[in-house]
Amino acid sequence: MYVFHTPEGETFHSHGFTGVPEQPLTTAIDPAIVATHWLTRDEIVALAAAQRLRSPLVLKRIDDALNHRHFPLSVIQE
Length: 78
Hints:
Structural class: alpha+beta
Number of helices: 2
Oligomer: single chain
Number of strands: 2
Strand content: 5-15%
Shape: globular
């Protein structure tokens, strides 16, 4: 779980999941998604430098995943 506090006093909680697909998707996931873009980490860093990411947590989650900082799904309790 990641937490981001904006200068305006808003707080955002964020999380990310990684996985390996068993097979390619052949149907649309969500009709509101009009495009997907596969970017390298360097391209995402450039977007961050241009302040074009939704939050600094985007790059933090990517870096944590690349550094194998993850936990099993069993840590989520309902």
